[in-house]
Amino acid sequence: MSDLKNKKIYLAGHTGMVGSAILRELKTRGYNNIITKDLSELDLRNQSTVQNFFEKTKPELVIIAAAKVGGILANNTYRAEFLYDNLMIEVNLIHASYLNKVEKVVFLGSSCIYPKLAPQPLKEEYLLTDTLEFTNEPYAIAKITGIKLCESYYRQYGCNYISAMPTNLYGPNDNFNLETSHVLPALIRKFHEAKINEKDLVTIWGTGKPLREFMYVEDLANAIVFMMESIDAKDLYENGITHLNVGSGKDITIADLAKLISEIVGFNGKIEYDLSKPDGTPRKLMDVTRLNSLGWEYKTELKDGIVKTYNFFKEKYT
After folding, report:
1. Candidates 31, 139, 161, 237; catalytic one
2. 211-246 per-position pLDDT tens digit
3. 247: which DSSP letter?
């Protein structure tokens, strides 16, 4: 694609943590023709609305960062919404991209697409080899569908549509709501409030033993723009894979994560674990060998990223 930085890019989901990071990355790199729409302006679940938008604006590149997201509690509670909303968003955007001859689509998924007990680290080829984790099965099924849509539009029509599967993300504009957030931002808020309220105990769901990988969201944004610029559909599908993992390739137990966050926040009390609550998948570590071999690696170490995220939290919520 010639003169890439002048092409019209539609970034779906620009207000979320991931989308806002991608928007900052695009602007930093000199992209100057970016289309964004708030949910109030464009309901991505409505097929005719999305199609009319594409016919009117004619984007040349599309990045799909729009999704309904949440942690274990939200995924398990709002199962129908997580499946329906995410299916409709991606189906409408990918099909509209095809109908309007979009040159390239980058679709974002999640590491929860892999089977609950898949071998570690998670390789791209482990997709659809076993049973999913029940608590986030609807979200995972929706994201797997998005991957397969991108692959199928390539195989049937030759469309240059690719999929990126990020590991657990955190950073500026994260969701810090204790009922719907992921573990890392939830822990930041829990420890901060315990410190401010001079409490001597913080309770955490589960055993603390599950291993999780985390990546600073600005690193993901860098990876997505790299993929848009440097990787094509044939690089994936003609080499036997349907998507690319994006992560750090490093993991940490929830207990060690909690200890690290408590130190950064300055909470000096006790941490206990509620064994009646679910742990979720025992381990989720991404094998990022393929993306590394194509020329991209993460930059931000976990402690540095958490410090930046806690500073953002304090600026916005305190």
Report:
1. 139
2. 999 999 999 999 999 999 999 999 999 999 999 999
3. S
